[in-house]
Amino acid sequence: MDKIGLIAGNGRFPILFAKGARDNNVPVIAVGIEGETSPEIEQYVEKLYWVGVAQIGKLIKVFKQEHVSKAVMAGGLKKTNMFSSWRNLRFLPDLRTINLWYRHVKRRDDHSLLGAVADELLKDGIELQNSTLYVPQLLAQKGILTKRQPSEAEMEDIGFGWPIAKEIARLGIGQCVVIKEKVVLAVEALEGTDEAIRRGGNLGKDDIVVIKVSKHDFDPRFDIPTVGLETIKSLQESSTSVLALEAEKTLILDIEETIKAADDAKIAIVGL
To answer: Secondary structure of the chain: what % helix, strand, coil (to 5)?
Structure first.
């Protein structure tokens, strides 16, 4: 079977994707991002190479020499790295990245940047695939996914917060809001979902509702929001009672363990 390339960011998703591909007897050629990708991934892939966060030219060179024609992006990058000093060698961009950044990226948001990277890969015959290719079972389904069900008041908070979450996603600000009694406690921005949850928890104290949605121009190649065990830990620390997710557009990493952790913490997870 043809091999697949994996552009591996941080978190559990790249590892779970590599496991899924291996279970389907598909060899994985992984490119890890220095300072982001877990070295654990090496045990699940055929080969692992390392590049800096802004070395698209080197990444493409690896895939071409390995005869990779299809690839997947999995895992995130710390957005704060975008503002790190290029005096740190691992953040120094190569010429192809500089050209991409200044000529093809019209907006400095994730969707524009990753879309430009996908186009750049395609120029060299490398087609980016949906990131759920070998892990469709991790997609959140519609309905109540936990033993605990949301109360009527919590469902009203979800109804209140959902259009707000979709609007901030449309504006490119973030994909998560924290709600209590129809009051917005926190809106996700550069800091990420877990920090937004903690910030909202500090204000709401208990029984808060967290809503996480996809982007308005959702692209399954690189835009899939994820939650997992670390999310549940943040929810528990913040005394969250409900997590509402956009069904079929959100990944639940380590799904069985994550649902069990939510059950143990008496947190309801709802797919909408």
So the answer is: 40, 20, 40
Task: Please name the residue that has the structure tokens 């091999």.
Answer: 3
Chunked into runs of 10 residues, the chain (272 residues) has average pLDDT values of 91 96 97 94 97 87 96 81 48 64 59 78 94 96 97 98 96 94 95 92 93 90 90 95 97 97 98 97
Least Cα distance to 81 among 73, 89, 91, 96 occurs for 91
Q: Which residue has the tokens 């920090």?
A: 195
Measured distance CA(264)–CA(269) in Å, rounded: 12
d(CA 249, CA 141): 9
Q: Which residues contact 176 (CB under 8 A, 6 or more apart)?
A: 165, 187, 188, 193, 196, 197, 210, 211, 212, 213
CA–CA–CA angle 152, 267, 269 (5° rounding): 75
Domains of the chain: 4-128 (3.40.50.20), 139-271 (3.40.140.80)
